[in-house]
Amino acid sequence: MSQTMHFLGVPGRVADDISAFDWSSTSLGPPETWPPALVTTLRQVLATRQPMCFWWGDDLLQFYNDAYLPMLAGRETSALGQPFREYWADLWEGVEPFVQRAQAGEGTWMENLPLRILRNGVMQDSFWTFSYSPLYDDQGAIAGILNVVTETTSAVLDRQALQQAYLEAQKHLDERERHEDELKLLNRELAHRMKNTLAMVQSIVSQSLRGATSIPEAAKTIGGRIQTLAKAQDVLTGMSVTAAEITAIARTAVAPHVDGDDRISIVGPQVYLSAQQALGLSLAIHELATNATKYGALSRPEGRISVRWSKGEDNRFTFDWQESGGPPVTEPTRRGFGSRLTERVVSDLFQGQAAIRFEPTGVSFSLIGKLHNADDLDN
């Protein structure tokens, strides 16, 4: 019978190491002087396949089983018989409260405790689920601490990765839902604009024919106005510039509706808009001009429109559209999609307030807001 089998009755690498270790140089003394409680505890720990270790005596000298060896990662050759506090100095601060409670006779349990631990010469983050329990000597006094432990680092990291993947997936779904909502809004706006475009083409043709002296002249006038309409649509559907001057935006948006030099007055200082604000204001002017052509000031030869804006301190911006000389105006019982879209989009883009008013003398639109800073002009 080998020395290991004779001393502990349990085979294994750690049992061999314990039998070969010079215990006489420690506070425990040689194995033949050990109390039965220590030997019994040691045999039980060595016989289990669950990672376990325990510390015994005033110095809390360390014992463990074969299943515990992987947790020593690069430190197993110097672990046996070492004082707990000295050997595990790198994580002592994190576990000391549990040690004190076990020495006071209280069992503890901790799940997924994060600890910085020295492994293979490198400090690493790790997670542990473990229990500390008091161990008793032959007289019933607390003589040590039993540690039943499972490393959960991989499980915790996998769960964190899974949670992150879930959050990313949820973010993607939220973005997809938001994009679908935007697509629905764009489809509604596109359908609305197509109807208005057809109405505008019809109005352009009828007005051009009414004022023309010959068919060739009418054809030329109609072709030019429809081409201008197409340019205005380009402004509304996308802008390639990083900053747009408001005068060009306003003139391009109203150009398809102008049938005389004095019909629309456009007055204001030089102001540059970000692409988003330019597109929004173009949409507003487009909707207003379309309404004026169909029902308002531009539906009558004597009708006029005044377009004005100003820029104040701290990028304060005002914009006004005022119609006059058109047919009598009454408040509609139901606001159209274009009116709602114009007020909402413009007020949001300019971080202010925008409103369409149906006054008896003519439709008016006013905006009070703020221009984007110079750094934002490419947005």
From TrEMBL:
InterPro entries reported for this sequence: HATPase_C_sf, PAS-like_dom_sf, PAS_4, Sig_transdc_His_kinase_HWE
Q: What is its EC number?
A: 2.7.13.3
Q: Which residues form a coiled coil?
A: 162-196
Cite the entry's keywords alphabetically: ATP-binding, Coiled coil, Kinase, Nucleotide-binding, Phosphoprotein, Transferase
Pfam families to which the protein is assigned, alphabetical: HWE_HK, PAS_4
Could you confirm whether the keyword Phosphoprotein appears in this record? yes
Q: What is this protein called?
A: histidine kinase
Species, as recorded: Agrobacterium albertimagni AOL15
